[in-house]
């Protein structure tokens, strides 16, 4: 029987590529989304992957949603915590609401997503937790105090989970994408985006599939001894 994978924010951007790549690799995939019904319906039409709507910042919604995915597909073996948002503003203009919204989605959302799945992984002695962090969690970013804090926090989550899960056959790893050609990056003002591309030695934005392939590898049996790691995929823009 095929393994089951859950991808949060899995109907658009990097998440959609991850969902598709896992499906192509033989997983039964469930993709979540928070609000864009139209994009989710289009994604399901094109990919055949079922979507589930809930907000990762709501623990109860995650618990109930995960229960319905497991009722449909079976126990979740692979969880990809990918859902994330930006609310960029220079710090002196950042509002408490912009701070909180990003913390709730990008950081607490990871807790809310993994926590209900974790006990089952421990019981079954197998699990793959993959968190999509960001280059900006590694290096910081002008106008992203909120986002960078969450993405750095995501790295702390996987390093701790790795230690807790190792004996139960669970790995937890992070991927730090650099600037990838998605709606999120395209929303950056064009002049700023051009200057960012100028800072990428590869001379281009990354493609979502380049992140998805990292996920497929980390989810595989071949990656069983990789635990607590961070894979940077950023075109040589930044080294840890
Ligand atoms: N470094 C240094 N200075 C910068 C800067 C940067 N990266 N970006 C903007 N500035 C400067 C501007 O030139 C401007 O300076 P002056 O006042 O001297 O002209 C000042 O900072 C910004 O002032 P504004 O009043 O124009 O700022 P604003 O309130 O309109 O905010 C912004 C504009 C939100 C900062 C906008 O420039 C922006 O979105 N920047 C991009 C931020 C970014 O890179 N976000 C990453 C998104 S992609 C992502 O997050 C995915 C991932 O994981 C990689």
Write the SSE topology.
Layout: E1 4-7, H1 13-24, E2 28-33, H2 37-47, E3 50-53, H3 59-73, E4 78-81, H4 96-114, H5 118-124, E5 127-132, H6 135-139, H7 145-165, E6 170-177, H8 183-186, H9 190-198, H10 208-219, E7 230-233
Parallel strand pairs: 1-2, 1-4, 2-3, 4-5, 5-6, 6-7
Helix pairs in contact: 1-10, 3-4, 4-7
The structure holds acetoacetyl-coenzyme A.
Describe the structure.
The chain has one domain (4-231): NAD(P)-binding Rossmann-like Domain (Rossmann fold, 3-Layer(aba) Sandwich), CATH 3.40.50. It is of the alpha/beta class. It has 10 helices and 7 strands. The chain has a 7-stranded parallel β-sheet with strand order 3-2-1-4-5-6-7, sandwiched between helices. The chain has helices at residues 13-24, 37-47, 59-73, 96-114, 118-124, 135-139, 145-165, 183-186, 190-198, 208-219, and strands spanning 4-7, 28-33, 50-53, 78-81, 127-132, 170-177, 230-233. Helix 1 (13-24) packs across helix 10, helix 3 (59-73) packs parallel to helix 4 (96-114) and helix 4 (96-114) runs parallel beside helix 7 (145-165). Helices cover 48% and strands 15% of the residues. Acetoacetyl-coenzyme A binds at residues 86, 88-90, 93, 134-136, 141-144, 147, 179, 184-185, 188-189, 192.
């Amino acid at each position: 029987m095929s393994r089951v994978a859950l991808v949060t924010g899995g109907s658009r951007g990097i998440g959609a590529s991850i969902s598709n790549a896992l499906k192509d690799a033989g997983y039964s995939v469930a993709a979540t989304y928070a609000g864009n019904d139209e994009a989710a319906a289009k994604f399901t039409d094109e990919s055949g992957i079922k979507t589930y709507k809930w907000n990762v910042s709501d623990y109860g919604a995650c618990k109930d949603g995960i229960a319905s995915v497991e009722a449909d597909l079976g126990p979740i073996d692979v969880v990809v915590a990918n859902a994330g948002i930006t609310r960029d503003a220079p710090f002196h203009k950042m509002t408490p609401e912009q701070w909180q919204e990003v913390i709730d989605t990008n950081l607490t959302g990871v807790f809310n997503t993994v926590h209900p799945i974790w006990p089952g992984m421990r019981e079954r002695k197998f699990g793959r937790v993959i968190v999509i962090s960001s280059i900006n969690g590694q290096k910081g970013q002008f106008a992203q105090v909120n986002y960078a804090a969450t993405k750095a926090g995501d790295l702390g989550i996987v390093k701790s989970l790795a230690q807790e899960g190792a004996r139960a056959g669970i790995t937890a790893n992070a991927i730090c994408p650099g600037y990838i050609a998605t709606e999120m990056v395209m929303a950056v003002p064009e002049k700023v985006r051009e200057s960012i591309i100028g800072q990428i030695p590869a001379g281009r934005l990354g493609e979502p599939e380049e992140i998805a392939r990292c996920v497929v590898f980390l989810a595989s049996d071949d990656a069983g001894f990789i635990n607590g790691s961070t894979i940077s995929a950023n075109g040589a823009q930044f080294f840890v």
